[in-house]
Design brief:
heterodimer; A: about 350 residues; mainly alpha; ABC transporter involved in vitamin B12 uptake, BtuC; B: about 500 residues; alpha/beta; Rossmann fold; 2 domains; six-stranded mixed sheet
């Protein structure tokens, strides 16, 4: 290969790699549109007000969780598997604290979640334990603690009190009389997270940490604190989603938040935030969330004779999609030499 | 010897990495029954050539013939099947397993699907005998010494009945007596008709052991010579192949007041009671063998690793750092020796890497302001002649020399008072070396101090105003510019020769 030809090839590879990032995000939204159109073509009630509201609800809660998880994945620490536990715990704590006032209840719920996030952050960031193993253990501990503390009982907000009433209406309240509150929260969180990631010192340091932990450390970045912060941010978002979900279900229970861990990481990865860290955007993550929500709904509408797609089958599809996306991503990046592995 | 036959022949072999031609149409022939040394400076392409032989690449160009049969060495398995065995610089043994299991890894004898223990021991003993090692084959590898492990590694390679054995710096961790033992074994293997390709930096070893030597420079083969017709000096000339007058930068100012003062600085087990000064506008070299504690000292000076005792003064004020962030703030910078793993995030852009250390400074209330960074980056890219001059390029696609420039740019961006450089030109081409040396000269000309750690002796001697000699964690003396020659410094690092007190 002659020198000029080779350097042309370098330039081409460079362009391809820049395109790769853009295409990834556009690809997600193309998938969103495709799924939406597929839904419209399905016989049944896809384009009804109730169904669209249902989809919006799925997007809202999963989206709030994902905004947080994105920070963990971005920092190359994959995911927090204790998310369902954090969601359940913060919901239950919030309900239990309602007698002390509505605001105090909300704050205690979020504080409880963040405390768990801080423990995760210290153990994973400072003591460098494997994030998957540690949060898996944390999940197990949390579900045990909740069962023990509440004796397996569910806790109900007391609708007779003002605070209880406010809590039950929390999920269904609206901002400016039109926008559902959870959606407004998601929008504000997503914008804030995007700003944090792209425009602040913390974001730059998070990106460096996620791209090369050692290089970040040797640049004077306090990598331990950065990783710990990612887990606290994620836990705060999960806690918020947990409280909203508890309000919607009108009950605090140990099973609330089930499956959110895997759905969240799948949405984040579909959205172009690779498990290798340091890549992706909140905009892409939101696309991933929409894909998951739409996929779930479209699958529910499938009816061929007696055959319907139930929860088990959905799990199979979701798992397959996750494997496919992660597989294609690592393969294509290794092929194009973008990753140093 | 040459009448026995050609074991390995390579014709016009080339290998490209993104941005560099690491091996450029090299012809190479190794005969059965010879020790063929392969030498060259860092980045000359010898390790890439060796990897081609070992089957690490499936995209090299040119012809390769093993025992006169054309073979495409596109995977390590193909290389092994053709009788090529490799002994790496870093040992690749599994420490918890026994010697026997390591030696016979991948071909454990079995009977009815179960491990045949007696055959395992017998075969392992046979292999160990060939390298003159008398150890119980059932000893775990973690319980034997480094040089015994090296021999176990050779036993494993030899046990596969290779016709070509590639050895990469096999003596780097061995004592003189152990080297002698290894050489006896290598000579015995040569007698048995193996072609041995021997890579080393150590010229006396090559003169002693090799039959022929191939010299590489900048990816190309310079020459292949018979050892009997060449001297060490001629080898060096062929390796370097240029006049050295352009190197080591042009300095205008001479050193001024004391800037950095280090007293009784210790980290137990690494360096002990280290005291020295560095003046403004001075380049202080630190010379020592591998394991002397040079990098460890540098890392503790910057607060990357904790120190146990001692103090540091910067411009007359106590500046013993709490942690690295603190040290950077105080005006320290440490350029790591490990560019790929610790220096750069290879998949981020040139801009992201070069500005990584100044991000906190360019922030107002935590929000990043892009403008000052852009101007700074443009200046650095121009001054260090980063090629291609495109800040949005992925750093990993740059050549080694340009990556090193980006790493240096990261620390020049912080305008450090004390710049500590650990192997600043490791594995870079000569053009980048000149630029980096000039940049270092400019730093001290602006009244800053540089501490230079380098195993590249000509560079260390050429750049430094003064050289501290470090040995086994202690500073044993110093040499000023007038007395520091390459051989004097090397002798001193080995604990011989005369030194001035610090």
């Amino acid at each position: 290969m002659s020198e000029p030809a080779a350097s042309r090839e370098d330039a081409r590879a460079q362009k391809t790699s820049r395109l790769h990032g853009t295409l990834n995000v556009l690809g997600v939204y193309a998938l969103v549109i495709a799924l939406f159109m597929l839904g419209c073509l399905m016989p049944g009630e896809f384009l009804t007000r109730d169904n669209l509201l249902n989809i919006l609800r799925d997007i809202m809660l999963l989206g709030i969780v994902c905004v947080g998880v994105a920070f963990i994945t971005y920092s190359q620490h994959y995911v927090d598997l204790s998310i369902p536990g954090i969601m359940a715990l913060s919901g239950i704590i919030a309900v239990s604290m309602l007698p002390y006032g509505f605001v105090i209840a909300l704050l205690s719920g979020i504080a409880a979640g963040m405390a768990i996030g801080a423990v995760n952050g210290v153990v994973i960031g400072y003591l460098r334990l494997n994030p998957i193993i540690w949060t898996l253990a944390m999940m197990s501990v949390l579900s045990g603690v909740i069962r023990k503390a509440y004796g397996g009982k569910q806790v109900y907000p007391d609708a007779a009190t003002d605070a209880g009433n406010a809590f039950l209406n929390l999920y269904h309240s609206e901002v400016f009389g039109v926008i559902p509150l959870p959606f407004a929260i998601l929008a504000v969180l997503a914008l804030a997270a995007d700003f944090l990631m792209r425009k602040t010192a913390f974001g730059a340091q998070l990106k460096l940490t996620g791209s090369s932990y050692e290089a970040a450390r040797m640049t004077g970045v306090n990598v331990r604190r950065v990783v710990a912060a990612a887990f606290v941010i994620s836990a705060a978002a999960s806690a918020l989603a947990g409280i909203l979900l508890t309000s919607f279900n009108k009950v605090g229970a140990q099973y609330i938040g089930k499956d959110y861990d895997f759905q969240a990481i799948t949405a984040v990865v579909i959205g172009g935030t690779t498990l290798a860290g340091g890549r992706g955007s909140i905009f892409g993550v939101m696309g991933g969330v929409m894909v998951i929500a739409l996929m779930n709904k479209v699958m529910s509408l499938v009816r061929i004779g007696d055959f319907v797609i139930g929860d088990f089958q959905k799990n199979i599809v979701l798992g397959a999609v996750f494997i496919l996306v992660v597989g294609i991503n690592s393969f294509s990046r290794r092929k194009s030499g973008l990753d140093d592995a | 010897m040459t009448d026995i036959g050609v074991a390995l022949e390579m014709e016009k072999v080339s290998k490209r990495y993104p941005g560099t031609l690491a091996v450029d149409s090299v012809d190479f022939t190794a005969y059965a029954g010879e020790v063929h040394a392969l030498i060259g400076e860092n980045g000359a392409g010898k390790s890439t050539l060796m990897k081609i032989i070992a089957g690490s690449f499936d995209d090299y160009t040119g012809r390769t013939l093993v025992n006169t049969a054309p073979v495409r060495l596109h995977s390590p398995a193909i290389a092994r099947a053709n009788g090529i065995q490799m002994i790496h610089q870093e040992l690749s043994l599994a420490p918890p397993l026994s010697i026997a299991e390591n030696v016979l890894a991948g071909r454990l004898p079995s009977r009815f699907g179960f491990l045949n223990r007696s055959a395992l021991i017998a075969e392992a003993e046979r292999c160990l005998q060939r390298v003159g090692l008398e150890l119980d084959p059932l000893t775990p590898v973690e319980e034997i010494s480094q040089h015994e492990a090296q021999l176990v590694e050779i036993a494993r390679a030899v046990g596969n009945n290779p016709c070509i054995l590639v050895m990469d710096e096999p003596t780097s961790a061995l004592s003189r007596a152990e080297v002698e033992r290894l050489f006896t074994i290598i000579r015995k293997l040569r007698q048995q008709g193996l072609a041995i390709i021997y890579i080393s930096h150590h010229l006396p070893e090559i003169i002693e052991l090799a039959d022929r030597v191939t010299i590489m420079r900048d990816g190309k083969k310079v020459a292949t010579k018979t050892i009997s017709e060449i001297t060490s000096a001629q080898l060096v000339e062929l390796m370097v192949g240029r006049s050295l007058s352009d190197l080591y930068g042009k300095r205008r100012e001479s050193p001024g007041e004391v800037k950095l003062r280090v007293e009784h600085f210790s980290r137990y087990g690494f360096f002990h009671d280290v005291s020295f000064n560095v003046r403004a506008g001075e380049i202080l070299g630190i010379c020592g063998l591998a394991g002397a504690g040079r990098s460890e000292l540098a890392r503790s000076l910057c607060g990357i690793d904790p120190a146990d005792y001692g103090d540091i003064w910067l411009d007359g004020e106590v500046a013993t750092p709490e942690d690295y962030t603190d040290a950077i703030h105080a005006g320290f910078a440490y350029l790591t020796e490990d560019r790929k793993a610790q220096g750069l995030a290879l998949r981020l852009t040139v801009a992201e890497n070069a500005l990584a250390a100044v991000v906190p400074r360019h922030c107002v209330a935590g929000v990043y302001m892009p403008e000052p960074g852009e101007a700074l980056l443009a200046r650095l890219v121009e001054r260090l002649q980063v090629y291609p001059p495109d800040p949005a390029r992925t750093t990993g696609s740059l050549s080694g020399g340009n990556q090193q420039k980006v790493l240096l740019a990261k620390w020049l961006a912080t305008e450090p008072e004390v710049l500590i450089l650990d192997e600043p030109t490791r594995g870079v081409d000569i053009g980048a070396k000149v630029v980096i040396h000039q940049a270092i000269a400019e730093v001290v000309d602006r009244g800053r101090s540089v501490v230079l750690i380098s195993s590249d002796l000509p560079e260390l001697v050429g750049l430094s105003d003064r050289i501290l000699i470090m040995r086994k964690g202690h500073i044993i003396g110093q040499m000023d510019k007038a007395r520091a020659t390459e051989s004097a410094v090397l002798l001193a690092a080995n604990g011989e020769g005369e030194l001035q007190p610090v």
